[in-house]
Specification:
Helix content: 25-40%
Largest sheet: 2 strands, antiparallel
Distance between the termini: 77 Å
Strand order of the largest sheet: 1-2
Number of strands: 8
Oligomer: single chain
Number of helices: 5
Structural class: alpha+beta
Shape: elongated
Order of helices and strands: HEEEEHEEHHEEH
Length: about 150
């Protein structure tokens, strides 16, 4: 392995002094290797923030030596938004990132259920006439009507 040049050594020291001081390595996580927990600022949705950017993106770009292309996102394979470990991150497009997500609508899409867990089948689903292309769940409709009746009377 080549010895880093003076400039590269300074760059790595600066990274250690400004970024890595906010990282706790070997934090138990949900992946094959332990996560690196970001202990600095967090965004409202739980992602680490570093100099007005996402911390995991900063660390990934620092490690790889290039900026992410426009439209490329990083998916947390460990499912921990605060994790900045580079080998827990994978470059994906927005569609893939959404499909891998944990939102109820995506879980239902994968499981072939509505957001409340009812089966998506011909008997249970119908298309709304007032909104072309919008599907509704009959079981959810029944539950909503039942709940409204109980509140009214």
């Amino acid at each position: 392995m080549a010895v880093p040049s003076g400039l590269e050594a300074m760059r790595e020291k600066l990274w250690a002094d400004t970024f890595l001081i906010h990282v706790v390595k070997d934090t138990p996580g949900g992946y094959t290797t332990p996560c690196w927990k970001w202990t600095g600022a967090l965004s409202w949705d739980g992602y680490g923030r570093f100099k007005a950017r996402y911390a995991h993106v900063c660390n990934y770009e620092h490690d790889r030596g290039y900026r992410l292309k426009k439209g490329v996102l990083l998916d947390h394979l460990c499912r921990n938004r605060w994790c900045v470990r580079v080998d827990h991150l994978e470059e994906v497009d927005n569609r893939e990132n959404v499909l891998r997500g944990e939102a109820p609508s995506i879980k239902g899409w994968r499981d072939n259920t509505c957001m409340r867990g009812h089966p998506k089948n011909e008997e249970n689903m119908y298309m709304r006439k007032d909104r072309a292309g919008k599907w509704n769940c009959r079981e959810c409709q029944k539950e909503d009507r039942r709940r409204r009746r109980e509140q009214e009377g």
